[in-house]
Design goal:
single chain, about 280 residues, alpha/beta, Rossmann fold, nine-stranded mixed sheet, 9 helices, about 35% helix, about 25% strand, globular
Length: about 280
């Protein structure tokens, strides 16, 4: 090996204790469970890419609102340019929140269909076909991979979907993506959490919401954590608290004491086209 090649190789080696950790998170759940607030409260300098006016919920949280700058979503090329700006240090960002990445995936299918229909007069501009779904999935997958590689915290917000396993009859709770897109995100994220909110009425005029974030997978719920010592479900979750010690590199791996049932076999998912179509109704 010549010296130039060796020097190039050595430049890629960095002691892990000197490497800054950035959290990569996917939070999914029903509308109104507090996903946007949970993500926007992570860090002090937050950029929120907003595709569905989810930012209005932050008006109820002035302590979070002052930390956030909003970008109205315009397309995947915008996310691509945003990624470049953050990577090159031209835009200061501690945490990037993309709300909602599942809706963005559906909107891009419209973009793909419009573009392909314009090139093919015989194509029905209102009916996507399998090649449209494949192109949409690949476009979204590439942008998400680029986002998750950014030198900052990244929080992806998504809807939830339920699929029935025809073999076992179980209802599977998952982020609302096509299988390939979901696999890309889950593999690259440090934390995948299913957020729920239960309404608790104290009296006629006073209602509290009990929020819970499931971060350990069960037989029917998609979740994941690379953060040692977390319980299966976190009450009143706060990403700052969850990642505080982990980002300093001082969290020790701990085995959960709770028994998690394992899936008893592979689940049957609908094909790519059905996955995307089903998202349009959410």
């Amino acid at each position: 090996m010549d010296q130039k090649t060796l020097d190039a190789l050595l430049d890629t080696i960095t002691p892990l204790v000197e490497t800054e950790a950035y959290a990569k998170v996917l939070i999914y759940g029903e509308s109104g469970t507090g996903k946007t607030v949970l993500g926007a409260n992570f860090g002090e300098k937050v950029i929120l890419v907003d595709s569905a006016n989810g930012w209005v919920s932050l008006k109820n949280h002035p302590d979070v609102l002052h930390k956030v700058q909003r970008i109205e979503y315009k397309g995947l090329s915008q996310l691509d340019a945003l990624s470049d700006a953050i990577t090159e240090g031209k835009l200061e960002c501690e945490t990037l929140v993309v709300d909602e990445i599942s809706s963005i995936a559906v909107m891009d299918l419209d973009t793909v269909l419009k573009s392909r229909s314009a090139k093919d007069p015989s194509k029905d501009p209102n009916v996507p076909t399998q090649p449209d779904f494949f192109a949409n999935t690949e476009r979204v997958r590439r942008v998400i991979s680029k986002l998750l590689a950014l030198p900052c915290n990244v929080v992806l917000v998504a809807h939830v979907r339920e699929d029935k396993d025809e073999r076992t009859g179980k209802v599977m709770t998952r982020p609302a993506f096509t299988p390939k897109t979901r696999q890309t995100i889950v593999q690259q994220c440090h934390l995948v959490g299913y957020l729920t909110a239960n309404e608790i009425k104290k009296d006629e005029d006073d209602t509290e919401y009990h929020r819970r974030l499931q971060v350990q997978p069960t037989a029917t719920i998609t979740a994941k954590t690379r953060i040692g010592g977390l319980p299966t479900v976190i009450d009143a979750p706060n990403l700052n608290t969850i990642f505080a010690d982990w980002k300093k590199g001082i969290v020790e791996e701990e085995a959960s004491t709770e028994v998690i049932p394992e899936p008893d076999g592979p689940t049957i998912e609908s094909d790519e086209s059905n996955d995307v179509i089903s998202l349009e109704g959410e």
